[in-house]
Task: structure prediction
Amino acid sequence: MPVPNSFNYATVRVVPRVDRDEFVNAGVIVYSSEQNFLGARIEVNEARLRALWPALDVSMVERHLQAICRICVGDPAAGPIARLSKKERFYWLTAPRSAVIQISPVRTGLSSDPESLLNRLARELVATA
Result:
C-alpha cells in the first residue's frame, strides 16, 4: 500500500460582488511537494453566480479561472508565473487577494494519490450536480 504524503489544498471562490462577501466555490487547487504534484479542477456554475450578481461577466470569470489550470500545468501560454516551480506557483495562486476570484485559506492533509484527492475534493467542495 502506498505511503500517504502531505498535501496542501485551497478552494477557488468567485466573489461576484466583493463588497458583499458572498461567494460560490468554483474550483480546487492541490499541491504535494513530496509527490511533485500541482493540479486544479474548475467548475463554473453560471446559475449560482448570476443569482449573486445578474450582471456578472461569466465568460470573463471562466477565462480567468481556466488560467489557474494552465498555471498549474506550467503552460507557457499562461505567462511567466507558469514557469515558476510548482511550489512557487501554488503559493502565488493561493496568495490572498481582494478580487472577484479569491482563494480560501490553505488546508493540509495526507494522501497517497493526489490526483484522486483532487477529484474527490472537487466533487465534495465544488460540484453541484
